[in-house]
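User: quick one, fold this
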Amino acid sequence: MNDMTPVKATTPKDWETDQEVRWCPGCGDYAILKAVQRTMPEIGGTPENTVFISGIGCSSRFPYYMETYGFHTIHGRAPAVATGVKLANPDLDVWIITGDGDALSIGGNHTMHLLRRNLDCQIMLFNNEIYGLTKGQYSPTSRVGTNSPSTPYGSVDRPATPCAFALGSGARFVARGFDVSKNLPEVLNAAHAHRGAAFIEIFQNCIVYNKDVFEDFAAPKGADGHQLWLRNGEPMLFGSEKSGGTKGIALDNVGLTLKVVDVVDGDWQRAGVIVHDVTNRSLAHMLVEMPFGEFPMALGVLYDDPRPTFNDAVIAQNESASAGKAPDLGKLLAKGQTWTVAEGHPEI
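Assistant:
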């Protein structure tokens, strides 16, 4: 798109297709879809300059419901297709839609390399801790003891933590939200503002096969005591008088671990509450690994520290390699090891 072309403002309605949305009644995917459609006008996006790319799974029907370009690809391979799309047309705004099984099982290798390469795109991982499309088998994020058709006596696998996986793969932006949260558009805005691979884990309620598995922190009742919404430069506070008093997250200097502290009369500094710094990678790791129950669920932007992108590096390298050179296909084909097969050669 020409930079001089005025961008027409859009509304959420402009991002809706005429396709019937076919998820189970009550599925959390509906709320995520609406959050994205509300977010796109806020970021100044245009349908003709946006593409949604998905793999396989319930979440991967997403491109059908966004009035943009889209690819519904094969299981686990959305990152590979997204890489090709971004390199072919760097001006496109690329969004990847995936699930916990699609991204972390068959697609784990692809997800890892997209993150370490730092392709400029947004990755939305819908985590319902189950395989929903294929009838409720346990997934890489299912909790120990999960009963499913593939684990009738309960899963004995230790679950993967998507955000820890992302950080370990070299991601430079990691965030969390959940399907019905009013703060989800804020998280999506921050992800889009990041230049590079932005990884967002979205806890999503599977109404059929894993109903209310996140209810302990996502339910409106008592939410302020179970959710820690992180904002850069602000103290890590949660709770209220209704939930038993304001609390905060502090650093235990003895074990170099995090701990929950009480905040009296609003004096969070005296209580030693940490101020969130999105560029602190070590802190992000600790927040991701906080065990829920003893700690609240860390939500919002956990880590945001940009570095040069893969697509910029590839384009710059190609421009450097071709500078001052005229295209010559014949010369390219003859370059390197060549040989001539003479007439009468036994292999002819």
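User: anything notable?
Assistant: The chain has ten helices and eleven strands.
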